[in-house]
Structure formats: C-alpha cells, structure tokens
UniProtKB/TrEMBL annotation:
Bifunctional enzyme that catalyzes the epimerization of the S- and R-forms of NAD(P)HX and the dehydration of the S-form of NAD(P)HX at the expense of ADP, which is converted to AMP. This allows the repair of both epimers of NAD(P)HX, a damaged form of NAD(P)H that is a result of enzymatic or heat-dependent hydration. (6S)-NADPHX binds at residues 58-62, 131-137, 160, 325, 376, 440. It catalyses: (6R)-NADPHX = (6S)-NADPHX; (6R)-NADHX = (6S)-NADHX; (6S)-NADPHX + ADP = AMP + phosphate + NADPH + H(+); (6S)-NADHX + ADP = AMP + phosphate + NADH + H(+). PROSITE patterns: YJEF_C_2, YJEF_C_3, YJEF_N. It comes from Aquimarina celericrescens. This is Bifunctional NAD(P)H-hydrate repair enzyme. Binds 1 potassium ion per subunit.
C-alpha cells in the first residue's frame, strides 16, 4: 500500500472531486460517515458519553459530521469547537449549520483553559482538532487542551491523524500530541505512523477506503510503500517439480567467534528453512562441532583460530550472509576486507560486519552493487553518523544508499528497507522479537532468498516480511516474552504457508 505526501493526498482529493463531479462537502460526508460506521459498529448504540473535539478546518468538519450522525443514532454526544483560528473552512461552516439542525445541545465554544470540560475515565473522545493541515506550532492553550485530553483515561479515537502530529515532520513538543487509542485514517496510512518517534501516538490504525480516485493513486509515485501480504505475494517464486537442490542455490554464512557460534547456527538454519538448496557455515575452528551438531543439514568450513583470520572459498556461493558474531579484531578486519574485494556473489552484511564497515569506510568502495546491509539503530548510527530525528535518519540513509548503491534495512518495530529514494515499511513483527539472535535469523532468511535467485531488493523486502510474520506466529504460540530467536526459525515454514491462507468464510447455518 502506498504512502503519499500531504501534497499528494490533497491532489488525490482534488482528482476525486473532479472525476466524480462531487463537491468537497460530499467527499467530507463520505469520509466522516466511514468513521461513524466504524464507531457505530463497535459501540452498537451504547449510551457512553462521547466528546467530539472539532477544529475549525476540514478535520473539524469531519468531526461535525460524525457528531451529527452520532446524534441521529441516539448517542450521548457533546460537541466542542476548538477556536484556534477565525479562519473557518467552507465545509466546516456548512456542517456547523447542519449540526445545529439535529443537535440536542449547542456546540460548546472553547477559547481558553477555563472552557475545558471534565472528562471521565469511561467517556469516549473523538479527536478532530487538526488533520493533515497542521503546519505550525500550537498556541499554548490548544497544547494544554491536548494534554488535558491525554491526562484523562478516555478511549480516544483520532480522525485521520492524532491532533498535534504533523504528517511530515516530528512534533515541536512531544507532549502536545494526542495519544490516540485508534486512529481512523482516510484511504492511505501516513508515514509518521511507522517511525519510532511518532508511531507512539497512533497505537492502532484503521484505514478506511473513502473512494479516492484509483487512477490518481496508482499513478502517484508516493513517498513510501507499506509492505503487507498483498505486496509480497507477487514476489514469491514457486518451486518447480523437476528441480533439485542445486536449483535453489548454495548459501554461505560467515561469522562466529569463541562464545558467539550460536549466531551462525541460527542464520544457517534460517537460510535452510527459507529454502536454500545447500548451506555452508564458515566459522572459526571452535565452532566446528557446534554447527555440525546443531545443524546436521549444513556443511562446515573452519578457520584454525578462535576468530576468523581468513575467508577463503574454493567455490562461488549463490549468496553470502556475513558478519554475525564475527568480532572486530585486526585479523578479522583484514579477512573481511580481502573477502569483500574479491566477492561477486549477492551478499548481506550484518552485525560486526557493519561495525567493521563503519570503522573502515574505505571498504564500502568494494561492495558489490545492491549489497544488503541490515543495521539495528546503534549499528546504523555508527555507519551514517548521528541524526537529529527520524526524518533526518531516513534522509541520511537514503543518501548513504545512493552513495554506495546498497540496500539498507533499518531494523526496528517497523523495519524500513531503503534503496535510494525508495522506502519499504514492513508491517509484520512484534515486541517479542526484541530478543537475542533475532537479527541473525533475518540475515539467514535474506541469504536464503538471495541464494534462490530473488533480486537483492526483493530478498530484503520479502525477507523482512517473512521474518516478522514468523515472529508473529511464534508470539501467537508462546506470548511475547517467551519468544526466542530459535522460535522465529521454527516458524519460517508457517510464515510461507500464511502467504497463501485464504480468509476463512464463516460457516453458513444449516437449514
Ligand atoms: N485528504 C482527504 O482525503 C480528505 C481530507 N479530509 C479532512 O481534511 C483534513 C485536512 O483539513 P485542512 O486542510 O482543512 O486542515 P486541518 O488539519 O483541519 O487544519 C485546519 C487549518 O488550521 C490551520 N492551522 C494549521 N496549523 C495550525 C496551528 N498550529 N494553529 C492554528 N491554526 C493552524 C491551517 O490553516 P491556515 O491557518 O494555515 O490557513 C489548517 O488548514 C484531513 O486531515 C481530513 O480530516 C476529509 O474531510 C475529506 C477527505
Ligand atoms: N519491537 C519490535 N517489533 C518488531 N520487530 C522487532 C522489535 N524489536 C526488534 N525487532 C526485530 O528483531 C530483529 C533484531 O535484530 P538485532 O537487534 O540485530 O538482534 P540480534 O543482534 O540480537 O540478532 C530485527 O529484525 C528487528 O526488526
Ligand atoms: K485529528
């Protein structure tokens, strides 16, 4: 699913209004009705007090439509107008008039702190103060109103975007943004919902289709792509009946040091479980018995040291995953450096491999095109330097990717794969995956996909998706806390099966 910029969203609005020959007021009615339907569906007429806070722009206009529909359906509604400006939008005013016809109570005008209502814990708040039109810092009393709403324990539903959150930059004051329980967003998700600094405000997202012009949406380049099942299914390459293990490539996992051989075990298992035809672990001598015992399906090549001092292969691997548990001593740096100079196989670099690149940036010149680098935030910082905020982080990563023609997977809750200007935001995974060795499994999965002939970009995007999906399955079985990296490996198969699962249709009652 595409993610558009604010300007592109506004253009999509216009394109819809023109092509359908409808007014913006009708589009507002359509959008807000979708929010009402969702609420009504969940509340089923429950007489809970609902406080609808409306700004004076089109987000506020949506709020007024929602208030009117709630009133019509007998809900206990109180509407507030947050008068942060006299510049009321045309569609806000039209809906203001329409609300007055049905409202049992006149909307309450808020102009300062003295006007704030008391909110009880069990009440519901609809947040329609600011939408994607927020373009400057809040005046102090509106910031205080947002804090007042946050302080209450009301269940808060934000319309389109939590108020106080810019769609395209981080907030001026992190405390002056609505922490919404559910954000009902129009047509497409917003980039800020998936960044660590801003995703915290939109805990749960519901995307409602408001019928924006399909042609425009398809043609619009977007600023990022949200990766879900629909996006990865076309990437999947099926296996042929007359294939053999050679068809699916030979993965080589290079890494490990004394006390860190487990990382290579996890990655090697993951490569095999992802479908690599053959897998070889290249480890120091101390890892020999461990890998042979833990992964009998794999072959092992050793270096006669406790840390790798040479990486010498007498065959060309289909794919290489390198850096896991590697250590960063001088002889290992030399070994990696020599290896990268001569390597022409598709490659994933992780962990200490990244740390070595960060310390010796000259090595970046020797990377094969579209090398995949999979840093966690600390490793990324070593690689690209400090960033001001999450947007700066993305820009610096884009810059790095362009400069070195590499694919960078920024790992985290929503891992983001960056290739030049393109951002792919992953939507699988869970906090149970914040556990030792989880990243080693990802390296193995991506290597396994590369070995089967997936292009580097597809291997990265699909691999990150599968990894998260396997983690979701693991968490489903054990709960977040008990997930260990081995459970993610064990569920890679289920993650593949899940791709082809049809949604179950409820059984028809037998007559
Ligand atoms: N896109 C879609 O598909 C559809 C969109 N729809 C809805 O429209 C929403 C966007 O509406 P919007 O453009 O009227 O802006 P909104 O967020 O209501 O802000 C109001 C105005 O406030 C101003 N302002 C900004 N910052 C300020 C500040 N700090 N303090 C004071 N004032 C400030 C600024 O105006 P300015 O003063 O700069 O002229 C701004 O325009 C969108 O999120 C969705 O809910 C649907 O109805 C239909 C389908
Ligand atoms: N809260 C989270 N939600 C989803 N995925 C997560 C979360 N925390 C970590 N992960 C995933 O787990 C992996 C952790 O990688 P990494 O930090 O390199 O672990 P390790 O070095 O222990 O192998 C990444 O793929 C990351 O995206
Ligand atoms: K809002």
């Amino acid at each position: 699913m595409k993610i558009l910029s604010v300007q592109q969203m506004r253009m999509a609005d216009e394109a819809t209004i023109t092509s359908e020959k409808i007014s913006s007021l009708e589009l507002m009615e359509r959008a807000a009705t979708k929010v009402f339907d969702l609420l009504h569906n969940r509340l089923q007429g429950t007489p809970i007090p609902i406080h609808v806070f409306c700004g004076i722009g089109n987000n506020g206009g949506d709020g007024l439509v929602i208030s009117r529909l709630l009133e019509k359906h007998g809900y206990h509604v109180r509407t507030y107008i947050v008068n942060f400006s006299d510049n009321r939008s045309k569609d806000f005013l039209a809906n203001y008039d329409r609300l007055k016809d049905v409202a049992s109570e006149w909307p309450v005008q808020l102009k300062s702190k003295q006007d704030f209502p008391t909110l009880l814990d069990q009440d519901i708040v609809i947040d329609a103060i600011f939408g994607i039109g927020l373009n400057r810092p809040l005046v102090p009393w509106v910031a205080t109103l947002i804090k007042h709403i946050n302080k209450s324990k009301c269940f808060t539903v934000s319309v389109d975007i939590p108020s106080g959150l810019y769609a395209d930059k981080i907030p001026d004051d992190p405390e002056s943004v609505i922490y919404s329980d559910v954000t009902v967003t129009f047509q497409l998700p917003k980039l800020v919902f998936f960044l660590p600094q801003t995703g915290i405000y939109a805990r749960d997202i519901e995307i409602v289709d408001i019928g924006l012009n399909r042609e425009f949406l398809q043609q619009s380049p977007g600023i990022a792509e949200l990766i879900g099942k629909n996006e990865v299914l076309p990437l999947y390459r099926s296996r042929f009946k007359y294939s053999h293990k050679g068809t699916y490539g030979h993965s080589v996992l290079v890494g490990g040091s004394y006390g860190k051989i487990g990382s290579v075990v996890l990655a090697t298992k993951a490569a095999l479980k992802t479908g690599s035809g053959l897998a070889t672990a290249y480890v120091p001598e101390c890892g020999y018995a461990i890998v042979q015992t833990a992964v009998p399906e794999a072959m092992v090549i050793t270096d006669d040291d406790d840390e790798l001092s040479e990486i010498d292969l007498d065959f060309k691997p289909s794919a290489v995953g390198i850096g896991i548990g590697l250590g960063t001593n001088e002889k290992t740096i030399k070994a990696l450096s020599n290896f990268l100079k001569n390597n022409t196989s598709p490659i994933v670099i992780d962990a200490d491999g990244i740390n070595i690149l960060a310390k010796h940036p000259k090595l970046l010149e020797n990377l094969t095109t579209q090398t995949i680098i999979t840093p966690h935030p600390k490793e990324l910082e070593r690689l690209i330097g400090r960033w001001k905020d999450d947007f700066d982080k993305l820009n610096k990563t884009i810059e790095f990717s362009k400069r070195h023609d590499c694919i960078v997977v920024i790992k985290g809750a929503n891992s983001i794969t960056v290739y030049k200007d393109q951002l792919y935001i992953n939507n699988t995974g869970n906090p149970g995956m914040a556990t030792a060795g989880s990243g080693d499994v990802l390296t193995g999965i991506i290597t396994g996909l590369l070995s089967q002939g997936y292009s580097p970009l597809h291997a990265a995007v699909f691999g990150v998706y599968l990894h998260g999906s396997a983690g979701d399955e693991a968490a489903h079985q054990t709960g977040f806390e008990a997930v260990v990296a081995g459970d993610i490996v064990a569920n890679i198969g289920t993650a593949f099966l899940e791709l082809f699962k049809q949604r179950s249709i409820p059984d028809k009652k037998s007559s």
